[in-house]
Amino acid sequence: MSQVIKRAHGAMDMTQGSPARLIVTFSLPLLVGNIFQQLYNMVDSIVVGNYVGASALTAVGTGFPVVFLLASLFIGFAMGATVMIAQYIGAGDQASVARTVDTLYSALLILILPLSLLGVALTTPLLTLIRVPGEAFDQARVYCIVIFAGGVGSLGYNVNAGIMQGLGDSKTPLLFLAVACVLNIILDLLFVLSFGLGVFGVALATIIAQICSWVFGIFYINWKYPFLHIRFLQMRIDRKLLGQIVRLGVPSAIHQCQFSVAILIMQALINGFGNDFAAGFSAANKIDSFAFMPIQSFCTATTTFVGQNMGAGQLDRVKQGTRSALLVSTAVCLVMTAIVIPLRRPLLMLFNRESAVVAAGEAYLLRVLTPMFVLAVMFILSSVLRGAGATMVPMAASIVSQWGARLPAAYLLARWFGPEELYWSYLIGWILGLAICLVSYGRGRWKDKCVVVQPRESCGDG
Protein backbone atom coordinates (compact mmCIF):
# COMPACT_ATOMS: atom_id res chain seq x y z
CA MET A 1 0.00 0.00 0.00
CA SER A 2 1.30 3.50 -0.80
CA GLN A 3 3.09 5.46 1.92
CA VAL A 4 0.66 8.38 1.63
CA ILE A 5 -2.27 6.14 2.45
CA LYS A 6 -0.40 4.32 5.21
CA ARG A 7 0.27 7.63 6.97
CA ALA A 8 -3.32 8.82 6.67
CA HIS A 9 -5.10 8.78 10.03
CA GLY A 10 -7.47 5.86 10.41
CA ALA A 11 -6.55 4.09 7.15
CA MET A 12 -5.72 0.41 7.53
CA ASP A 13 -3.45 -1.77 5.41
CA MET A 14 -5.27 -5.11 5.42
CA THR A 15 -2.66 -6.91 3.30
CA GLN A 16 -0.45 -7.59 6.35
CA GLY A 17 -1.12 -8.98 9.82
CA SER A 18 -3.67 -11.33 11.35
CA PRO A 19 -6.81 -11.52 9.17
CA ALA A 20 -9.08 -12.11 12.18
CA ARG A 21 -7.64 -9.17 14.10
CA LEU A 22 -7.82 -6.87 11.09
CA ILE A 23 -11.44 -7.77 10.30
CA VAL A 24 -12.57 -7.37 13.90
CA THR A 25 -10.63 -4.11 14.37
CA PHE A 26 -11.98 -2.68 11.13
CA SER A 27 -15.53 -3.74 11.96
CA LEU A 28 -15.73 -2.17 15.44
CA PRO A 29 -16.05 1.45 14.24
CA LEU A 30 -18.47 0.20 11.60
CA LEU A 31 -20.55 -1.45 14.32
CA VAL A 32 -20.76 1.74 16.35
CA GLY A 33 -21.56 3.61 13.13
CA ASN A 34 -24.31 1.14 12.27
CA ILE A 35 -25.75 1.63 15.74
CA PHE A 36 -25.88 5.38 15.19
CA GLN A 37 -27.35 4.89 11.72
CA GLN A 38 -30.06 2.60 13.03
CA LEU A 39 -30.80 5.16 15.73
CA TYR A 40 -32.11 7.43 12.97
CA ASN A 41 -35.11 5.22 12.36
CA MET A 42 -35.17 3.80 15.87
CA VAL A 43 -35.52 7.24 17.47
CA ASP A 44 -38.05 8.26 14.81
CA SER A 45 -40.12 5.17 15.62
CA ILE A 46 -39.84 5.55 19.39
CA VAL A 47 -40.80 9.23 19.30
CA VAL A 48 -43.80 8.85 16.99
CA GLY A 49 -44.87 5.53 18.53
CA ASN A 50 -45.07 7.00 22.02
CA TYR A 51 -46.03 10.62 21.35
CA VAL A 52 -48.05 10.46 18.13
CA GLY A 53 -49.57 6.95 18.05
CA ALA A 54 -49.53 3.48 16.51
CA SER A 55 -50.58 4.80 13.10
CA ALA A 56 -47.52 7.08 13.03
CA LEU A 57 -45.32 4.12 13.99
CA THR A 58 -46.79 2.17 11.08
CA ALA A 59 -46.23 5.17 8.78
CA VAL A 60 -42.52 5.40 9.58
CA GLY A 61 -42.07 1.62 9.42
CA THR A 62 -43.82 1.20 6.08
CA GLY A 63 -42.31 4.37 4.63
CA PHE A 64 -38.71 3.27 5.07
CA PRO A 65 -38.70 0.41 2.52
CA VAL A 66 -40.30 2.74 -0.04
CA VAL A 67 -37.49 5.26 0.50
CA PHE A 68 -34.83 2.55 0.41
CA LEU A 69 -36.17 1.17 -2.89
CA LEU A 70 -34.89 4.04 -5.02
CA ALA A 71 -31.90 4.91 -2.83
CA SER A 72 -30.65 1.34 -3.22
CA LEU A 73 -30.08 1.87 -6.94
CA PHE A 74 -27.23 4.32 -6.33
CA ILE A 75 -26.03 2.63 -3.14
CA GLY A 76 -25.36 -0.47 -5.27
CA PHE A 77 -23.10 1.52 -7.57
CA ALA A 78 -21.30 2.95 -4.54
CA MET A 79 -20.65 -0.62 -3.36
CA GLY A 80 -19.08 -1.40 -6.74
CA ALA A 81 -16.81 1.62 -6.42
CA THR A 82 -15.84 0.54 -2.90
CA VAL A 83 -14.61 -2.80 -4.23
CA MET A 84 -12.58 -1.02 -6.93
CA ILE A 85 -11.04 1.41 -4.44
CA ALA A 86 -10.06 -1.43 -2.08
CA GLN A 87 -8.42 -3.38 -4.91
CA TYR A 88 -6.53 -0.34 -6.20
CA ILE A 89 -5.42 0.41 -2.64
CA GLY A 90 -4.10 -3.13 -2.35
CA ALA A 91 -2.14 -2.58 -5.57
CA GLY A 92 -0.91 0.88 -4.41
CA ASP A 93 -2.47 2.70 -7.39
CA GLN A 94 -3.44 6.15 -6.04
CA ALA A 95 -4.15 7.65 -9.44
CA SER A 96 -6.86 5.06 -10.19
CA VAL A 97 -8.35 5.62 -6.73
CA ALA A 98 -8.62 9.35 -7.39
CA ARG A 99 -10.20 8.84 -10.82
CA THR A 100 -12.67 6.34 -9.36
CA VAL A 101 -13.77 8.83 -6.69
CA ASP A 102 -14.15 11.60 -9.29
CA THR A 103 -16.22 9.35 -11.53
CA LEU A 104 -18.44 8.20 -8.68
CA TYR A 105 -19.15 11.72 -7.42
CA SER A 106 -19.85 13.00 -10.92
CA ALA A 107 -22.42 10.23 -11.35
CA LEU A 108 -23.98 11.12 -7.97
CA LEU A 109 -24.41 14.77 -8.93
CA ILE A 110 -25.96 13.82 -12.26
CA LEU A 111 -28.40 11.27 -10.83
CA ILE A 112 -29.51 12.81 -7.54
CA LEU A 113 -32.17 15.17 -8.91
CA PRO A 114 -33.85 12.60 -11.21
CA LEU A 115 -33.83 10.05 -8.38
CA SER A 116 -35.41 12.52 -5.96
CA LEU A 117 -38.14 13.55 -8.41
CA LEU A 118 -38.83 9.92 -9.30
CA GLY A 119 -39.15 9.05 -5.63
CA VAL A 120 -41.64 11.84 -4.98
CA ALA A 121 -43.69 10.85 -8.04
CA LEU A 122 -43.81 7.16 -7.08
CA THR A 123 -44.59 7.63 -3.38
CA THR A 124 -48.38 7.47 -3.57
CA PRO A 125 -48.53 4.54 -6.06
CA LEU A 126 -46.04 2.51 -4.02
CA LEU A 127 -47.80 3.12 -0.72
CA THR A 128 -51.07 2.12 -2.37
CA LEU A 129 -49.44 -0.99 -3.81
CA ILE A 130 -48.22 -2.20 -0.42
CA ARG A 131 -51.64 -1.61 1.16
CA VAL A 132 -50.63 0.82 3.90
CA PRO A 133 -53.50 0.95 6.43
CA GLY A 134 -55.80 3.91 5.82
CA GLU A 135 -55.16 5.55 9.19
CA ALA A 136 -51.39 5.61 8.45
CA PHE A 137 -51.43 6.36 4.71
CA ASP A 138 -51.26 10.17 4.74
CA GLN A 139 -48.51 10.19 7.35
CA ALA A 140 -46.49 7.59 5.43
CA ARG A 141 -46.85 9.69 2.28
CA VAL A 142 -45.56 12.81 4.05
CA TYR A 143 -42.62 10.86 5.51
CA CYS A 144 -41.56 9.45 2.13
CA ILE A 145 -41.86 12.74 0.22
CA VAL A 146 -39.77 14.66 2.74
CA ILE A 147 -37.06 11.97 2.82
CA PHE A 148 -36.95 11.80 -0.99
CA ALA A 149 -36.70 15.59 -1.26
CA GLY A 150 -33.60 15.58 0.96
CA GLY A 151 -32.19 12.29 -0.29
CA VAL A 152 -28.86 13.81 -1.34
CA GLY A 153 -27.71 13.70 2.28
CA SER A 154 -28.28 9.96 2.64
CA LEU A 155 -26.76 9.09 -0.73
CA GLY A 156 -23.81 11.43 -0.18
CA TYR A 157 -23.02 10.01 3.24
CA ASN A 158 -23.09 6.44 1.91
CA VAL A 159 -20.78 7.40 -0.97
CA ASN A 160 -18.32 9.04 1.44
CA ALA A 161 -18.44 6.06 3.77
CA GLY A 162 -17.83 3.68 0.86
CA ILE A 163 -14.83 5.70 -0.30
CA MET A 164 -13.23 5.75 3.14
CA GLN A 165 -13.97 2.08 3.78
CA GLY A 166 -12.31 1.20 0.49
CA LEU A 167 -9.28 3.24 1.58
CA GLY A 168 -9.18 1.19 4.77
CA ASP A 169 -10.61 3.90 7.06
CA SER A 170 -13.62 2.72 9.06
CA LYS A 171 -13.20 5.20 11.92
CA THR A 172 -13.80 8.55 10.27
CA PRO A 173 -17.38 7.95 9.05
CA LEU A 174 -18.24 7.16 12.66
CA LEU A 175 -17.36 10.68 13.82
CA PHE A 176 -19.65 12.44 11.37
CA LEU A 177 -22.41 9.89 11.83
CA ALA A 178 -22.27 10.34 15.60
CA VAL A 179 -22.68 14.09 15.24
CA ALA A 180 -25.54 13.61 12.80
CA CYS A 181 -27.26 11.11 15.08
CA VAL A 182 -27.13 13.44 18.08
CA LEU A 183 -28.46 16.23 15.89
CA ASN A 184 -31.25 13.95 14.65
CA ILE A 185 -32.33 13.06 18.18
CA ILE A 186 -32.37 16.71 19.29
CA LEU A 187 -34.34 17.78 16.22
CA ASP A 188 -36.77 14.84 16.59
CA LEU A 189 -37.66 15.91 20.10
CA LEU A 190 -37.78 19.58 19.14
CA PHE A 191 -39.96 19.15 16.05
CA VAL A 192 -42.35 16.59 17.57
CA LEU A 193 -42.64 17.56 21.24
CA SER A 194 -42.18 21.34 20.97
CA PHE A 195 -43.53 22.13 17.51
CA GLY A 196 -46.02 19.25 17.17
CA LEU A 197 -44.92 18.42 13.61
CA GLY A 198 -45.48 14.66 13.99
CA VAL A 199 -44.19 12.42 11.18
CA PHE A 200 -43.19 15.45 9.09
CA GLY A 201 -40.97 16.56 11.95
CA VAL A 202 -39.07 13.29 12.28
CA ALA A 203 -38.54 13.13 8.50
CA LEU A 204 -37.27 16.73 8.43
CA ALA A 205 -34.92 16.03 11.35
CA THR A 206 -33.52 13.01 9.53
CA ILE A 207 -32.67 14.78 6.28
CA ILE A 208 -31.10 17.77 8.05
CA ALA A 209 -28.87 15.44 10.07
CA GLN A 210 -27.91 13.38 6.99
CA ILE A 211 -26.98 16.45 4.94
CA CYS A 212 -24.73 17.67 7.77
CA SER A 213 -23.04 14.26 7.91
CA TRP A 214 -22.47 14.28 4.14
CA VAL A 215 -20.99 17.80 3.99
CA PHE A 216 -18.65 17.12 6.92
CA GLY A 217 -17.45 14.00 5.11
CA ILE A 218 -16.55 15.92 1.96
CA PHE A 219 -14.46 18.43 3.91
CA TYR A 220 -12.66 15.61 5.71
CA ILE A 221 -11.82 13.63 2.57
CA ASN A 222 -10.46 16.71 0.81
CA TRP A 223 -8.40 17.69 3.84
CA LYS A 224 -7.02 14.33 4.94
CA TYR A 225 -6.36 12.63 1.58
CA PRO A 226 -4.34 15.04 -0.61
CA PHE A 227 -4.66 12.89 -3.72
CA LEU A 228 -8.48 13.14 -3.63
CA HIS A 229 -10.31 16.35 -4.58
CA ILE A 230 -14.10 16.31 -4.49
CA ARG A 231 -15.50 19.36 -6.30
CA PHE A 232 -19.20 20.02 -6.91
CA LEU A 233 -18.74 22.13 -10.04
CA GLN A 234 -16.26 19.88 -11.86
CA MET A 235 -17.51 16.80 -13.70
CA ARG A 236 -14.67 14.33 -14.23
CA ILE A 237 -15.75 10.97 -15.58
CA ASP A 238 -13.27 8.29 -16.64
CA ARG A 239 -15.21 6.15 -19.10
CA LYS A 240 -13.13 3.03 -18.51
CA LEU A 241 -13.53 3.27 -14.75
CA LEU A 242 -17.21 4.09 -15.15
CA GLY A 243 -17.55 0.86 -17.10
CA GLN A 244 -15.89 -1.04 -14.25
CA ILE A 245 -18.16 0.66 -11.70
CA VAL A 246 -21.18 -0.31 -13.80
CA ARG A 247 -19.94 -3.90 -14.16
CA LEU A 248 -19.49 -4.26 -10.42
CA GLY A 249 -22.27 -1.89 -9.39
CA VAL A 250 -25.19 -3.06 -11.56
CA PRO A 251 -25.45 -6.48 -9.86
CA SER A 252 -25.16 -4.79 -6.46
CA ALA A 253 -27.77 -2.20 -7.45
CA ILE A 254 -30.12 -4.92 -8.71
CA HIS A 255 -29.44 -6.88 -5.53
CA GLN A 256 -30.34 -3.90 -3.35
CA CYS A 257 -33.33 -2.87 -5.48
CA GLN A 258 -34.95 -6.30 -5.73
CA PHE A 259 -34.41 -6.71 -1.99
CA SER A 260 -36.33 -3.49 -1.47
CA VAL A 261 -39.12 -4.60 -3.79
CA ALA A 262 -39.34 -7.90 -1.91
CA ILE A 263 -39.61 -5.98 1.36
CA LEU A 264 -42.45 -3.93 -0.10
CA ILE A 265 -44.32 -7.07 -1.16
CA MET A 266 -43.78 -8.60 2.27
CA GLN A 267 -44.96 -5.33 3.79
CA ALA A 268 -48.12 -5.52 1.69
CA LEU A 269 -48.83 -8.99 3.09
CA ILE A 270 -48.18 -7.82 6.66
CA ASN A 271 -50.25 -4.65 6.28
CA GLY A 272 -53.18 -6.81 5.24
CA PHE A 273 -53.41 -8.17 8.79
CA GLY A 274 -54.19 -4.77 10.32
CA ASN A 275 -52.47 -1.81 11.90
CA ASP A 276 -51.48 -3.55 15.14
CA PHE A 277 -49.79 -6.45 13.33
CA ALA A 278 -47.99 -4.00 11.00
CA ALA A 279 -46.86 -1.85 13.95
CA GLY A 280 -45.56 -4.95 15.76
CA PHE A 281 -43.63 -5.97 12.66
CA SER A 282 -42.16 -2.48 12.36
CA ALA A 283 -40.98 -2.45 15.98
CA ALA A 284 -39.57 -5.99 15.84
CA ASN A 285 -37.80 -5.24 12.57
CA LYS A 286 -35.96 -2.35 14.25
CA ILE A 287 -34.81 -4.66 17.06
CA ASP A 288 -33.81 -7.31 14.54
CA SER A 289 -31.77 -4.71 12.63
CA PHE A 290 -29.90 -3.82 15.80
CA ALA A 291 -29.18 -7.47 16.60
CA PHE A 292 -27.79 -8.07 13.10
CA MET A 293 -25.60 -4.96 13.03
CA PRO A 294 -22.41 -6.73 14.18
CA ILE A 295 -22.76 -9.11 11.23
CA GLN A 296 -23.27 -6.23 8.82
CA SER A 297 -20.08 -4.67 10.15
CA PHE A 298 -18.15 -7.91 9.68
CA CYS A 299 -19.51 -8.12 6.13
CA THR A 300 -18.28 -4.63 5.22
CA ALA A 301 -14.91 -5.35 6.81
CA THR A 302 -14.69 -8.64 4.93
CA THR A 303 -15.42 -6.95 1.59
CA THR A 304 -12.63 -4.41 2.19
CA PHE A 305 -10.23 -7.12 3.41
CA VAL A 306 -10.89 -9.31 0.37
CA GLY A 307 -10.69 -6.34 -2.01
CA GLN A 308 -7.30 -5.17 -0.75
CA ASN A 309 -5.81 -8.66 -0.73
CA MET A 310 -7.18 -9.49 -4.16
CA GLY A 311 -5.55 -6.28 -5.40
CA ALA A 312 -2.29 -7.38 -3.79
CA GLY A 313 -2.63 -10.88 -5.30
CA GLN A 314 -2.73 -12.65 -1.91
CA LEU A 315 -5.31 -15.39 -2.30
CA ASP A 316 -4.13 -17.34 0.73
CA ARG A 317 -4.96 -14.35 2.95
CA VAL A 318 -8.37 -14.08 1.30
CA LYS A 319 -9.15 -17.65 2.30
CA GLN A 320 -7.80 -17.14 5.83
CA GLY A 321 -9.90 -14.03 6.22
CA THR A 322 -12.99 -15.87 5.00
CA ARG A 323 -12.59 -18.57 7.63
CA SER A 324 -12.01 -16.00 10.38
CA ALA A 325 -15.02 -13.91 9.37
CA LEU A 326 -17.29 -16.96 9.29
CA LEU A 327 -16.25 -18.11 12.76
CA VAL A 328 -16.47 -14.71 14.41
CA SER A 329 -19.77 -13.71 12.78
CA THR A 330 -21.49 -16.99 13.65
CA ALA A 331 -20.38 -16.80 17.28
CA VAL A 332 -21.47 -13.16 17.64
CA CYS A 333 -24.80 -13.89 16.00
CA LEU A 334 -25.55 -16.67 18.48
CA VAL A 335 -24.64 -14.39 21.39
CA MET A 336 -26.90 -11.60 20.13
CA THR A 337 -29.79 -14.03 19.80
CA ALA A 338 -29.24 -15.31 23.33
CA ILE A 339 -29.38 -11.73 24.64
CA VAL A 340 -32.33 -10.35 22.66
CA ILE A 341 -34.79 -13.25 22.81
CA PRO A 342 -35.22 -13.22 26.63
CA LEU A 343 -35.57 -9.42 26.57
CA ARG A 344 -37.90 -9.26 23.56
CA ARG A 345 -41.00 -8.06 25.40
CA PRO A 346 -39.49 -5.06 27.25
CA LEU A 347 -37.62 -4.11 24.07
CA LEU A 348 -40.83 -4.12 22.05
CA MET A 349 -42.58 -2.06 24.70
CA LEU A 350 -40.09 0.74 24.05
CA PHE A 351 -41.97 1.35 20.82
CA ASN A 352 -45.56 0.74 21.85
CA ARG A 353 -47.24 -0.83 24.89
CA GLU A 354 -50.45 -2.07 23.26
CA SER A 355 -50.70 -5.83 23.85
CA ALA A 356 -51.60 -6.68 20.25
CA VAL A 357 -48.60 -4.74 18.92
CA VAL A 358 -46.22 -6.42 21.37
CA ALA A 359 -47.59 -9.89 20.60
CA ALA A 360 -47.15 -9.34 16.86
CA GLY A 361 -43.56 -8.22 17.44
CA GLU A 362 -42.80 -11.29 19.57
CA ALA A 363 -44.02 -13.58 16.79
CA TYR A 364 -41.47 -12.00 14.45
CA LEU A 365 -38.49 -12.10 16.81
CA LEU A 366 -38.97 -15.71 17.88
CA ARG A 367 -39.12 -16.99 14.30
CA VAL A 368 -36.57 -14.71 12.62
CA LEU A 369 -33.93 -13.96 15.24
CA THR A 370 -33.43 -17.53 16.50
CA PRO A 371 -32.03 -19.00 13.22
CA MET A 372 -30.27 -15.76 12.17
CA PHE A 373 -26.82 -17.40 12.18
CA VAL A 374 -27.76 -18.96 8.83
CA LEU A 375 -28.15 -15.48 7.37
CA ALA A 376 -24.80 -14.49 8.90
CA VAL A 377 -22.96 -17.25 7.02
CA MET A 378 -24.75 -16.36 3.77
CA PHE A 379 -23.88 -12.66 4.12
CA ILE A 380 -20.20 -13.29 4.88
CA LEU A 381 -19.79 -15.51 1.81
CA SER A 382 -21.61 -12.92 -0.30
CA SER A 383 -19.22 -10.27 0.99
CA VAL A 384 -16.20 -12.39 0.08
CA LEU A 385 -17.49 -12.88 -3.46
CA ARG A 386 -18.37 -9.19 -3.77
CA GLY A 387 -14.95 -8.07 -2.54
CA ALA A 388 -13.32 -10.33 -5.13
CA GLY A 389 -15.38 -8.72 -7.88
CA ALA A 390 -17.81 -11.62 -8.40
CA THR A 391 -20.88 -9.47 -7.77
CA MET A 392 -23.24 -11.54 -9.91
CA VAL A 393 -23.38 -14.43 -7.45
CA PRO A 394 -24.58 -12.43 -4.40
CA MET A 395 -27.19 -10.86 -6.64
CA ALA A 396 -28.39 -14.25 -7.90
CA ALA A 397 -28.40 -15.73 -4.38
CA SER A 398 -30.47 -12.84 -3.09
CA ILE A 399 -32.97 -12.98 -5.95
CA VAL A 400 -33.49 -16.73 -5.64
CA SER A 401 -33.67 -16.48 -1.84
CA GLN A 402 -36.23 -13.69 -1.92
CA TRP A 403 -38.39 -14.50 -4.93
CA GLY A 404 -37.94 -18.24 -5.22
CA ALA A 405 -38.40 -19.03 -1.55
CA ARG A 406 -39.21 -16.34 1.02
CA LEU A 407 -42.09 -14.52 -0.66
CA PRO A 408 -43.99 -17.60 -1.92
CA ALA A 409 -43.44 -19.33 1.42
CA ALA A 410 -44.64 -16.29 3.36
CA TYR A 411 -47.94 -16.11 1.53
CA LEU A 412 -48.49 -19.88 1.77
CA LEU A 413 -47.58 -20.07 5.47
CA ALA A 414 -49.84 -17.13 6.29
CA ARG A 415 -52.72 -18.72 4.43
CA TRP A 416 -52.30 -22.24 5.82
CA PHE A 417 -51.14 -21.59 9.39
CA GLY A 418 -51.88 -17.95 10.21
CA PRO A 419 -50.00 -14.64 10.01
CA GLU A 420 -47.57 -15.37 12.85
CA GLU A 421 -46.13 -18.37 11.01
CA LEU A 422 -45.27 -16.47 7.82
CA TYR A 423 -41.96 -15.45 9.39
CA TRP A 424 -40.53 -18.96 8.97
CA SER A 425 -40.23 -18.00 5.30
CA TYR A 426 -37.11 -16.00 6.21
CA LEU A 427 -35.22 -19.15 7.20
CA ILE A 428 -36.39 -21.00 4.10
CA GLY A 429 -35.01 -18.24 1.88
CA TRP A 430 -31.73 -17.99 3.78
CA ILE A 431 -31.02 -21.70 3.39
CA LEU A 432 -31.49 -21.54 -0.37
CA GLY A 433 -29.35 -18.41 -0.72
CA LEU A 434 -26.61 -19.93 1.43
CA ALA A 435 -26.50 -23.03 -0.76
CA ILE A 436 -25.86 -20.88 -3.85
CA CYS A 437 -23.05 -18.93 -2.16
CA LEU A 438 -21.41 -22.11 -0.87
CA VAL A 439 -21.38 -23.73 -4.30
CA SER A 440 -19.95 -20.60 -5.94
CA TYR A 441 -17.23 -20.14 -3.33
CA GLY A 442 -16.29 -23.80 -3.54
CA ARG A 443 -15.97 -23.71 -7.34
CA GLY A 444 -13.47 -20.85 -7.07
CA ARG A 445 -14.29 -18.84 -10.18
CA TRP A 446 -14.37 -15.70 -8.06
CA LYS A 447 -10.56 -15.79 -8.13
CA ASP A 448 -10.59 -14.55 -11.74
CA LYS A 449 -12.78 -11.47 -11.16
CA CYS A 450 -10.18 -9.06 -9.79
CA VAL A 451 -10.15 -5.57 -11.37
CA VAL A 452 -6.39 -5.20 -10.87
CA VAL A 453 -4.09 -7.44 -12.91
CA GLN A 454 -0.90 -8.27 -11.06
CA PRO A 455 2.33 -8.18 -13.08
CA ARG A 456 3.69 -11.43 -11.64
CA GLU A 457 0.78 -13.28 -10.11
CA SER A 458 -2.75 -12.58 -11.24
CA CYS A 459 -5.67 -12.55 -8.85
CA GLY A 460 -6.89 -15.68 -10.52
CA ASP A 461 -3.85 -17.78 -9.70
CA GLY A 462 -3.88 -20.29 -6.90
Summed up, the domain count is: 1
Beta-strand level of the residues, as a percent range? under 5%
Radius of gyration: 21 Å
Count of discrete alpha- or pi-helical segments spanning 4 or more residues: 16
- SSE order: HHHHHHHHHHHHHHHH
Quick one: how many beta strands? 0
Helical percent range?
Answer: over 70%
Question: Based on helices, strands and strand pairing, what is the structural class?
Answer: mainly alpha
Instruction: Give the N-to-C terminal Cα separation.
Output: 22 Å
Q: Which stretches of 5+ consecutive residues score pLDDT under 50?
A: 1-9, 455-462
Mean pLDDT across the residues is 82
Q: Choose one word for the global shape.
A: globular
Q: Please summarize the sheet with the most strands.
A: none
Task: Give a quick summary of the entry.
The chain has helices at 3-7, 19-51, 54-91, 94-129, 134-149, 151-167, 172-194, 198-224, 239-271, 275-311, 315-340, 344-348, 355-368, 372-388, 392-417, 424-443.
